[in-house]
Write a structure and sequence with these properties.
Blueprint: E1 2-8, E2 13-22, H1 30-37, H2 47-63, H3 67-81, H4 96-101, E3 104-106, E4 109-110, E5 120-127, H5 129-132, E6 140-148, H6 165-177, E7 186-188, H7 194-204, H8 212-216, H9 234-237, H10 244-255, E8 274-281, E9 286-294
Parallel strand pairs: 1-6, 7-8
Antiparallel strand pairs: 1-2, 2-5, 3-4, 6-9, 8-9
Length: 295
């Protein structure tokens, strides 16, 4: 499946062509995680799950968030995966009770709070807006881009409960796009862990600190919800393909090429015009925001 989008500013014009593929087999992150551990492994602290668990635990202390918020994210994204035949979790529905029974990985994270490990590949190609006019697929314009890297060392960081890099990156992207949150029809958020989704949407301004449980409650991000999030199932339930999982899903949604999980009347959502996509690196150390528009 191919997807086409355009980046157009006052000084340059580009087109994004993306190709997505996901495989259902385990992948190799062990070497990456071992390099991240450093001396912390001596104390039993290693891997991305442990780093994000520390951030999430701090958020529980400061803002009274926790599993009652995160279960809405995990279950909501699984419902999208259950509509997506390409998703690893396509045929594995999950209820809130299933979430609460899933085993601990690193407290406060259960298995359902953790992203998948998958082999596969996705790619995108940039070309000119002029050439895009001759291509067979609809064009999706990149309206705005933003990036912020708030810290190098999560151990000494004070941003893990917000504001993360999402706040400044989002401000940059929305300023370039000339729109507000009210104009966004759906979000494709980098979701290495459920808490990442919460803190990212919080720092973009969808809700305030400690207000996530109320905002997510009632199916907000699910099929038929007012703000669909991670409509392929995301990294939690479709496949882990780094930031290309949200980006390619956003482009393909705007092109109308998502089959049974295509936003619109079939899912009880509006046909999207604008989708916000995010990417995140390290332990909330880097962030990028991309706003897409259907032409």
């Amino acid at each position: 499946m191919h997807a086409v989008g355009a980046l157009e500013t006052g000084i340059c014009k580009y087109i994004l062509i993306s190709y997505g593929h996901s495989a259902r087999s385990g992948g190799g992150m062990s070497q990456v995680l071992s390099r991240m551990a450093g001396d912390d492994a001596v104390f039993g602290h290693f891997g991305a799950a442990a780093g994000y668990a520390l951030a999430a635990r701090r958020a529980m202390h400061e803002y009274n968030t926790g599993p009652d918020t995160w279960k809405h994210i995990a279950v909501g994204q699984r419902k999208w995966a259950n509509l997506n035949p390409r998703a690893v979790m396509y045929d594995r529905p999950m209820t809130e009770s299933d979430y609460e029974r899933s085993p601990w990985i690193v407290e406060p994270f259960r298995l359902a709070d953790n992203c998948l490990v998958t082999d596969g590949g996705r790619a995108f190609i940039l070309t000119t807006a002029e050439r895009a006019r001759d291509l067979p697929h609809p064009v999706v314009t990149i309206m705005g881009l933003g990036m912020h890297n708030p810290a190098a060392d999560p151990v000494a960081a004070r941003h893990l409960t917000g504001p993360t890099g999402a706040r400044r990156a989002g401000e940059q992207a929305f300023h370039m796009a000339g729109i507000t949150l009210e104009d966004v029809d759906a979000c494709e958020i980098y979701d290495c862990f459920t808490y990442t989704v919460e803190i990212t949407l919080q720092d973009y301004g969808f809700f305030g600190p400690g207000e996530g449980e109320e905002w997510f409650r009632g199916g907000t991000i699910e099929p038929g919800g007012r703000t669909p999030v991670n409509t392929s199932g995301g990294l939690l339930s479709e496949a882990y393909q780094m930031g290309l999982t949200p980006l390619t899903e956003g482009v393909m949604q705007l092109m109308g090429r998502c089959g049974d999980h295509q936003l619109g009347p079939a899912t009880g959502n509006i046909k999207p015009e604008i989708i916000l996509c995010s990417d995140n690196g390290g332990i909330l150390q880097t962030h990028s925001c991309c706003i897409l528009r259907r032409n």
